[in-house]
Write a structure and sequence with these properties.
Elements lengths: L2 H25 L10 E2 L2 E2 H24 L3 H23 L1
Family: Belongs to the 4-toluene sulfonate uptake permease (TSUP) (TC 2.A.102) family.
Pfam families: TauE (PF01925)
Protein name: Probable membrane transporter protein
Length: 94
């Protein structure tokens, strides 16, 4: 599968996971230590700031990814997988 298509598919699945997850933590009973204007464990002012900027960054990121040499993201992802595997092995081996 081409890397751009894989990233796009992963983004869609991320949204499918994030929306119900956010709804669940919003439905949780409020904790007394939460700041004002919170719904469950979600700060509504933070949500109001983060969501628009995340949507803007998504478009910019997609345009940037289309300009990249396709080998670069593939190699970067391979390096990330090696680092994650090494950390998992180090943790498992103690």
């Amino acid at each position: 599968m081409p890397i751009l298509r894989a990233v796009g598919a992963a983004s869609v699945f991320g949204l499918v996971i994030a929306v119900p997850g956010t709804a669940v933590v919003m439905a949780a009973p409020p904790h007394p230590a939460m700041p004002p204007f919170s719904l469950g464990y979600v700060s509504l002012p933070a949500l109001a700031v983060i969501v628009p900027f995340a949507m803007l960054a998504t478009g910019a990121g997609a345009r940037f990814a289309h300009r990249l040499n396709q080998g670069l993201p593939r190699r970067g992802f391979a390096v990330l997988l090696v680092v994650v595997a090494a950390r998992m092995a180090a943790t498992a081996l103690g």
